Amino acid sequence: xxxxxxxxxxxxxxxxxxxxxxxxxxxxxxxxxxxxxxxxxxxxxxxxxxxxxxxxxxxxxxxxxxxxxxxxxxxxxxxxxxxxxxxxxxxxxxxxxxxxxxxxxxxxxxxxxxxxxxxxxxxxxxxxxxxxxxxxxxxxxxxxxxxxxxxxxxxxxxxxxxxxxxxxxxxxxxxxxxxxxxxxxxxxxxxxxxxxxxxxxxxxxxxxxxxxxxxxxxxxxxxxxxxxxxxxxxxxxxxxxxxxxxxxxxxxxxxxxxxxxxxxxxxxxxxxxxxxxxxxxxxxxxxxxxxxxxxxxxxxxxxxxxxxxxxxxxxxxxxxxxxxxxxxxxxxxxxxxxxxxxxxxxxxxxxxxxxxxxxxxxxxxxxxxxxxxxxxxxxxxxxxxxxxxxxxxxxxxxxxxxxxxxxxxxxxxxxxxxxxxxxxxxxxxxxxxxxxxxxxxxxxxxxxxxxxxxxxxxxxxxxxxxxxxxxxxxxxxxxxxxxxxxxxxxxxxxxxxxxxxxxxxxxxxxxxxxxxxxxxxxxxxxxxxxxx
Length: 532
What we know:
By secondary structure, the chain is of the alpha/beta class. The chain has 15 helices and 23 strands.
């Protein structure tokens, strides 16, 4: 087995594919290097000697500055390398040229999609329940509990286990025949917003909630309001009208302070919602072209293999989706630090180049204003598994976006306006980012991880893609697809083709994401507080 890997010919470091001991000799394409200090799997070693102050490259771009002299063959760690990203300025450039991947095998291919009245296509058919303010979270959960089990959308294996621990004899629960087989589920959103913060926060919340309400995966909504909160019903309705002036889905709104009792309100809510579920069940999936795929690409719990296996595979899938006429969304601006030049080159128009650079600089300035920096982005888990600077992490993270041209640059919650690859300004935090990706219209999210994460979403399937086979086996209940074979030598296109097929099966309802099986429905909207 090959012990080291060079990602790019211009790189100053090699990646250790297994633990390397001091005194060991490794080879890469005729280059022999004596290991001068132990190097852990996924970490990097210096290809030559460096002096303090030298800039080191990985993925062909600068990712760090040596803080002390580094010997050839020495492990590159946080003790000898700090974050460094090259400054970027807008300069005249030749038009970007792109060679799309070969997608001949996909010609004429379709998937069973959920087609809405306006022609937009979803990958699921859910009824969505949410509050305008955190005070109503309990009522949202009560309504969910009143609907899910009787309608056959949930199971509670741990409740049965609890009874067994108590020594209670119980019969196996009888399976519920779902009365609404064409409704994929009743999903809820709970949150900590809507009041007590700024009016800007309330407007941001309403913007995101309106995007979820309008999403083609949603058949209709039940909304709870207390009455006195910042996020007023009128504010939400205004956001909804702005999101889609022709919004025509069922929209049931209840204000608790107008009712004499909670019990009376909840019975009315349940009666009204159940009647609408019967209508939502009339939707049938039908074959639609692959051009209706709109994927989001995200990474979290990344390791030193993420940028070598899972992220490039997702990037190739992104390119394939664009090549068949679909859309892709690349987010996490703190994890694009250091690769701005490549992304700017790929922007189709100058306004998007300026907007991307402006959003990046504004994000970093607000981070610095509260005493932090993009350099603080890598988590302890990232660092422990080989991603020791933000620029290093970013260079691998950007691989998720493939190589296709960038057709638009979006701020948080904005909709992707046309097919192709879009950049979306979100934090790197898993749930804040996925929440924003879905609000921008993604109907399947691909989420790479090297360490493992359960992240899901209330209305869109989130496929977990592992960078290494070890975590895919260890956390098999979380991981949907293993890109570890790339590390072992399997061709990247073969792995990416398998992942693309899984995306299509998920979009068509023929595969259920592990996060959905675990009922992991996460939602956190970005309040524009600094969150890296």
